[in-house]
Amino acid sequence: MKSCFSYDRIASVYDLLSYFAFFGRIQQAQRYYLSQIPDGSNVLFLGGGTGWLLPDLFLSSHSRHITYIEASANMLLKAQNTVLRFQRQHPNTPIPSITFIYGTEQQIPFSSKYDVAITNFLLDMYSGSDLLTLVNRISKHLTDEAIWLFSDFHLSEHPRQRIWQKPLLSLMYYFFHLTAGIAIQPLPDFADVFGRFGWRSTHGSTFYQGFIRSQVYRRTKDVIPDAVAEDR
After folding, report:
1. Fold of 8-229
2. Distance between CA atoms of 62 and 219, rounded to whole angstroms?
3. Of 15, 45, 65, 174, which sees the most CB atoms within 10 A?
4. Do 120 and 48 contact (CB within 8 A), yes or no?
5. Domain regions of the chain by residue span
6. pTM over the 0.85 mark
């Protein structure tokens, strides 16, 4: 699968746009389950953008290694600078070794198996067979006991909330279609896609009146799904 979109044009303002558009709830959702990452984990962070979440990851868990893959060269450079800045500001804080890779899921090292996958606001850019291929490829690189931290947009089950969520979602897709080449499409049924590859949600929370959802997925073996918590 070849990525046909790029965030290079808006890399300098992307974080500010996402923060102010949703009053920080996007950032809150991505931080929410970082504490679930086991110590010593080998982490696959796919599509992490500017790397603003990396300092939170360093402080919330004690991972062994992070493979950071980003399809935007400008975003990747910002992520590397984020780490350098963190090291200068926190010289006594140990951080995991990090491999930065310019590319997509196709560049995941074949020899690696990961304990954790992180995909935040990434899967909504794919649909149909491309989305299935993406989830399948990531799944093959994860251990049987791995966890998958997932955050993305979600259309609420409540009709009153869907009234404003659906046009807002369409507006966002249109904006990113113009600026980054994202295809305009319906929001995928993420639960169905994960389920096809044996993943079930064990923890879930919603933000911004149900429009943003953060979840922890595990493989179905001995998994007891938790209810999704209300807005945080």
Report:
1. Rossmann fold (3.40.50)
2. 22
3. 45
4. yes
5. 8-229
6. yes
